[in-house]
Specification:
Glycosyl hydrolase, 5-stranded parallel β-sheet, hydrolase activity, hydrolyzing O-glycosyl compounds, Immunoglobulin-like, TIM Barrel, Rossmann fold, 19 helices, Ig-like_fold, binds beta-D-glucopyranose
């Protein structure tokens, strides 16, 4: 889909003809950490960008990473990509995009550096919290609507990081060996959808190399695939310091160079590029092509003056408003995942609760100001403790004990200056202190349990672990939480275990816990949503957008391929990422892809799968058979048949979220373009091919299949 019109290209061409080489060069490299140079004599403003993707980042100095520390750049903290994916609700992705686009424009920016849509290959990737899913269809559906929402406001979204930025370790230099099949089927489709279906106006070249070629020098990715195959007509921008050589990046479709240091004139696309043009090593046409893309997008965003010098009307946007906080809450509510609820332990009977014990440092934490470039200067972020107290009201005595020690993460203001180096985590263990905290928590839990009063544990991760520039080294809970949970369950078997985190953790005690609730870094109101699920004010409807394996050793990126190495990693697991592997190889998992419980129950009937013109239509009837209104996610998986190649037994092809009152039945229809439903990248032919048929599975998770049919 193209957003750039003929009028945009005409104006871009006309302006380009007026520009000097110096002016052109100024428009394609940074003149500030988040902006390019404008051309005042022609009314061309600087291009202003900002992170992304969970809200608009705080205002920094033009040439240093130190914030301005003013009071006018507080914004809505929107739920992370993983939370958004967990809703399985594209309408909420659109609402998120609308809020973010308006806030971006409201803050006077032109480009928001999101969505982050890399596929989660390993649970250890430090930026998984920003990313959406291990599955390309779920990622694509959410990304498309998010981009459409952002771009309503005369703001460009920026799909990042193109491509396969699946690990943080050695992220600037690691070379990733990936088959064409895995690229085409897993790592590229969300970008393709953002370009072809949503008309995303910018794409960020990743730091890493793919098959030996740096992404920001990669003619195959940036020209052949992005421009020629997908008809991308927006502009590309390097990740900050993703350009490492002038000629090699200048000659491919990398349009704008951004970086982390303030020596803007020395950037590869600054004086060195000018000199390369003068020496005839880079043609001025290459420079023109880049400036043309920038001008086209600027005009599409109504940034350029008309021929008579007047400025077109541009949307104004607004930020830090109550309605976007409401959007953040709406999304958070559908993102909480009820992983386990034996004996109907949840929801708490709020009318009968007189006191509640809350244990765990994440109850008393906020997370917005961390994680790397996705940090947010949030207007506010409620902690779970605040949200629980506020939900339960003054008649309930809430007691809090931390149970373990976790320093509140405070991100170093200028961490990004050093972000090009690998960093190591710190371990703040102190045996005596930790032992005292644990004993105190166990003693309180015993007393509450004996009295029949509820206990909620709020643990998980924080941005010391879910963090740009660093991968986790294992999948276990930090700060001794596993031992603490075991000890607590010994004395309080009905303890409700909840988490705030950005990536899966091992849960060796999971069989002993009756109720487990998962929440992500889910925005200003994320804790409200968690509290509402616990009290039953909200019926949970989040479903896992990624598998929670039993242990890290089960994960194919680690057991088959390599992950987290410096220099070179092999994606030997190929397309067998996440559930594609666990299902095909029948590997037990802790919680499977798509899993999520509700306080009501749903029945599925009447599956009908047929071809209608160029689509495959999957239809079934879903009935709410419980006693509460609730939403479920109808998931359609296909096992392609007759390909003659090794294929996953199940691949998500479509889904729909449906809201039903008790007793209500509804026919759910999922239409999938036939090329997507039956398409696969043939290893033999090294191109797209179409399967003749498929086994179709419909259910509430990849393992909770309710209906099956054959498509011949
Ligand atoms: C990140 C990008 C981000 C950029 C600007 C880089 O470190 O990888 O996602 O947009 O910085 O802050």
């Amino acid at each position: 889909m193209t957003v750039i019109t003929e009028a945009n290209t005409a104006k871009a061409r006309a302006l380009l003809a007026e520009l000097t080489l110096d002016e052109k060069i100024g428009m394609i490299h940074a003149a500030g950490l988040f902006r390019t140079e404008g051309v005042p004599r022609l009314g061309i403003p600087p291009f202003r960008m900002d992170d992304g993707p969970m809200g608009v980042r705080a205002e920094l100095h033009n040439d240093s990473w130190v914030p301005l520390y003013n009071t006018r750049d507080y914004v809505t903290y929107l739920p992370s990509g993983s939370a958004l994916a967990s809703t399985w609700n594209p309408d909420l992705a659109y609402a998120t995009g609308v809020a973010l686009g308006e806030e971006t424009r409201g803050r006077g920016k032109d480009v928001i550096l999101g969505p982050s849509i890399n596929i989660k290959r390993s649970p250890l990737c430090g930026r998984n919290f920003e990313y959406m899913s291990e599955d390309p269809v779920l990622t694509a559906e959410q990304a498309v609507r998010y981009v459409e929402g952002v771009q309503e406001s005369d703001v460009a979204a920026c799909a990042k990081h193109f491509a396969a930025n699946s690990q943080e370790t050695d992220r600037l230099y690691v070379d990733e060996a990936i088959s064409n099949r895995a690229l085409r089927e897993l790592y590229l489709p969300a970008f393709e959808a953002a370009v072809k279906r949503a008309g995303v106006l910018s794409v960020m070249g990743a730091y890493n190399l793919v098959n030996g070629v740096r992404c920001c020098e990669n003619g195959w990715l940036l020209d052949d695939v992005l421009r020629d195959e997908w008809d991308f007509d927006g502009f590309t921008v390097s990740d900050w310091s993703g350009v490492k050589r002038t000629k090699e990046s200048a000659e491919v479709g990398l349009d704008v160079e951004m970086s982390v240091t303030p020596d803007f004139d020395d950037y590869y696309f600054a004086n060195p590029l000018k000199e390369a043009v003068a020496r005839g090593e880079v043609s001025e046409q290459d420079v023109d092509r880049k400036v043309f893309h920038v001008l086209c997008v600027m005009d599409a965003l109504h940034m350029l003056p008309d021929g008579d010098g007047t400025r077109p009307v541009r949307k104004a946007g607004r930020y830090a408003t109550l309605d976007y906080l409401q959007t953040a809450l709406d999304v958070a509510r559908e993102s909480v995942v009820l992983l386990k609820n034996d004996d109907g332990l949840l929801p708490l009977d709020a009318d009968r609760v007189t006191r509640l014990l809350v244990i765990g440092a994440n109850a008393d934490r906020v997370h917005s100001n961390g994680g790397g470039s996705a940090e947010i200067k949030a207007l506010y972020e409620k902690s779970p403790l605040l949200a629980l107290c506020s939900q339960l009201g003054g008649n309930v005595k809430v007691e809090y004990v931390p149970g373990y020690h976790a320093e509140q993460v405070v991100q170093d203001v200028s961490w990004q200056e050093g972000s090009l180096e690998n960093s190591a985590g710190s371990d703040d263990a102190d045996e005596a202190r930790d032992c005292t905290l644990r004993e105190e928590a166990v003693a309180r839990a015993r007393a509450y349990s004996e009295a029949g009063d509820p206990i909620v544990f709020v643990g998980g991760l924080d941005h010391e672990h879910d963090l740009e520039g660093r991968d986790r080294t294992d999948m276990t809970l930090p700060y001794g939480q596993d031992a603490l949970i075991e000890a607590l369950l010994d004395v309080a078997p009905n303890m409700i275990v909840t988490f705030v985190a950005g990536s899966p953790v091992e849960m060796p005690w999971a069989d002993r816990a009756k109720a487990i609730v998962w929440s992500w870094y889910s925005g200003s109101e994320g804790a409200t949503a968690l509290a509402e699920v616990l009290t039953g004010a909200v019926n949970p409807s989040g479903h896992l957008p990624e598998t929670f394996p039993m242990t890290l050793d089960d994960c194919p990126a680690h057991s088959i391929g390599t992950f987290g190495h410096e220099g070179h990693v092999e994606y030997t697991e190929d397309i067998y990422v996440g559930y594609r592997y666990y299902e095909t190889k029948d590997v037990p998992v802790r919680f499977c892809f798509g899993h999520g419980l509700s306080y009501t129950t749903f029945e599925y009937a009447d599956l009908d799968v047929r071809r209608v013109d160029d689509t495959v239509r999957v239809a079934c009837t879903v009935t709410n058979t419980g006693s509460r209104e609730g939403k479920t996610v109808v998931q359609a998986y296909f096992g392609l048949e007759g390909t003659g190649e090794d294929r996953p037994v199940k691949e998500l092809k479509g889904f729909a979220k449906v809201d039903l009152v008790p007793g209500e039945s509804r026919q759910v229809i999922i239409d999938i373009p036939e090329a997507k439903a039956l398409g696969y990248w043939s290893v033999g032919a090294d191109k797209w091919a179409t399967a003749w048929g498929a086994a179709v599975y419909v259910g509430e998770s990849v393992r909770d299949i309710r209906l099956t049919a054959d498509l011949d």
